[in-house]
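Batch manifest, entry 17 of 40.
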Amino acid sequence: MNVDPFYRAPDGFESTDPGTILRSREVQLAVLTVLPVHVRSWQLLYRTTDLFGQPTVAATTVAIPEGASTSHGRPLVSHQFFYDSTSPACAPSYVLQQGGGLPALEGVHSTVEYLELAASISQGYAINVPDYEGLNGHLAVAKEPGYLVLDSVRAAESFQPLGLDGANTPVALWGYSGGGMGSGWAAEMQPGYAPELNVKGIARRRFRMSNPCCTSTVRCSPA
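Output type: C-alpha cells
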C-alpha cells in the first residue's frame, strides 16, 4: 500500500487543519477484491495527528448509495473495521478496492464487514471507513486511532460529492474488536479534539483492553 503514490503526504501538508482533504480519487469497491459493490465510492487522503501529537496523513474510504441524490444531507456512519493488523495490506482502503489481488486478501476477514456496510447503505446513509491504524499499521496505540477516526469524519463531511451537511451531519460510530478500540478512542476524545462534530451515538463491543498503554487515560464513560 505504501508504494501507491496516492498515500504520499504532499509537501506542506503540516500547515493545513486536521481533517483537510489533501487528495481524493473515485474507486470501485468489491467483495474479496473481485465482486463489484454497487455504490459510489471514493478514497480521501487527509491531514490528521499521530500518537505523538504531530501532523501526519491517513486514508479513508467513503461511499453513498448508487444513484443517491446529493441535493440534501444524510447521516454518516463511520465503520471502524476489525483489521487488527500491522500490515498495510490489511488496511480497509486496500482491502475494499477492486483489483487488490492476493495481497489484499490478507485482510479477507475485514470483508465480512461488508454486511454492516450494506445495512448502512440500505438505509440511505453515507459511510466512512477510515484506516485508523495509519499508514504504518500502529495497532493498539493510545489516542492516535481517535484522531484518525475524527479527522476522517471531518474530511467526509467536507467532501462535496457525498452531499453532507457539514458539521451538522448526524454521525454514528461503529466498531467491533479492534474497531471497537478505534471507535472508543474517537468517542472519548471527540469533546476535546473535535467538538464541532454532531456525534449522536457509538456502538462497539467485545474489545478488552489489558495493555496499560491503551488504558492509562481512557474512561469508561458513555459517548
